[in-house]
Amino acid sequence: MGGVDILSSNDSAFKKCYKSLFLGLIDFDIIYAFILYNCRRAADGKPKMTHVQF
Question: Which residue windows are transmembrane per the record (predicted)?
Answer without folding.
Answer: 20-39
